[in-house]
Design goal:
This protein is about 35% helix and about 30% strand. By secondary structure, the protein is α/β, with parallel strands linked by helices. The strands form 3 sheets. The protein has a 6-stranded mixed β-sheet with strand order 6-7-8-3-9-10, sandwiched between helices. A 4-stranded antiparallel β-sheet has the order 2-1-4-5, covered by helices on one side.
Length: about 325
């Protein structure tokens, strides 16, 4: 449904997007994740034909963004970060206006507006001026306008920014309900959004694609299943000395002391060795009381930080690549 090949965008000498390639299939919710300034919004604007690329191209629903931008726009429903709403119009009047811009006949505008208002949960405020609505309802109206042309692809740029926790949950559930036949790209820097909504995640940093995988695979690939967090009754020096004698233990680090005479620590293995059983046996045989033992794992946030940090380190070590450049966009 979406095929991106070598997408590059320069602003002067700076590459906001640098040779990015990825695909998104029909019905898939793809998370486009990265810190502020990573190149997410620039990529979204290129895919929606709002900006031309400096190099590379993309196809949306079979249409090339450079050769047939009009067909691409007809295939896409776009919710930008700042929703283009008119506060003095009612929801119904606004959707009718947007429908006319999309070239819909009057009868189609009425029927489709009714359908997307029901789908997005704004029927009860249909006659109210948009300027009187809460931020959550305004986001729903923004989603309704994106859906008005019955697009095959939805591109949502930071759809939950500025919402309260209840509104965030509502919008997330709404986005999930819109998948199926439609392909959705969800651009965000909010990590829980990815794990709760998206089936695949792309991480971009400094305009460069860092990784492309499912949230589950990212966690599985980087999970520290063999690092062990242990809560032990005894003195840390004695515990540390006992555990460091184990062949597969690289280090023993103290975290804190939850209570008097109790220490919480992390045992780091050598390589990918699983030292849980060995650690427990050594502590018991040495006379220490084991109160708790569990594997440590990385959260999606930890993974994001690790991947971005790793990418920056590699980028700093590598010589700058040469890419075709155009200035003036």
């Amino acid at each position: 449904m979406i095929e991106v090949e070598g997408l590059t965008k320069y602003y002067g000498a700076k590459a906001a997007v640098d040779n990015v390639s990825f695909n998104a299939g029909r019905g898939e919710i793809l998370g486009f994740l990265g810190p502020n300034g990573a190149g997410k919004t620039t990529t979204m604007r290129i895919l929606t034909c709002y900006l031309p690329p400096s190099d590379g191209t993309a196809r949306v629903a079979g249409h090339d963004i450079l050769e047939d931008p009009t067909a691409v726009r007809r295939s896409i429903g776009y919710l930008p970060e700042n929703v283009p709403l008119y506060g003095d119009l009612s929801v119904t009047a606004y959707l009718d206006f947007v429908g006319s811009l999309k070239g819909l006949a009057r009868a189609d505008r009425v029927s489709r507006a009714g359908r997307v208002m029901e789908q997005c949960g704004v029927v009860e405020v249909a006659k109210q001026p948009i300027g009187t609505l809460s931020r959550g309802y305004r986001q729903r109206v923004g989603l309704a306008q994106a859906l008005l042309g019955d697009p095959q692809v939805l591109i949502l740029d930071e759809p939950t920014v500025g919402l309260d926790p209840r509104q965030i949950v509502e919008i997330r559930n709404l986005i999930k309900s819109l998948a199926g036949e439609r392909t959705i790209i969800l651009s965000t820097h909010i990590l829980p959004e990815v794990s709760l909504v998206c089936q695949r995640v792309i991480i971009i940093n400094n305009g460069v694609l860092v990784t492309d995988d499912t949230p589950e695979n990212l966690v599985g690939d980087l999970r520290r299943t063999t690092s062990v967090e242990v809560t032990v009754r005894g003195d840390f020096a004695g515990i540390q000395a006992a555990l460091r004698r184990l062949n597969d233990v690289a280090d023993v680090r103290r975290l804190d002391s939850p209570s008097e005479g109790v220490v919480r620590l992390v045992v780091d293995p050598i390589g990918d060795a699983d030292v849980r059983e060995e650690v427990a046996a050594r502590l018991v045989s040495a006379g220490f009381g084991v109160l708790g033992l569990q594997s440590q794992s990385l959260s999606l946030e930890d993974i994001f930080v690790e991947l971005v940090t790793e990418e920056r380190a590699e980028d700093g070590a590598a010589a700058p690549g040469s890419r075709r450049r155009e200035d003036g966009f």
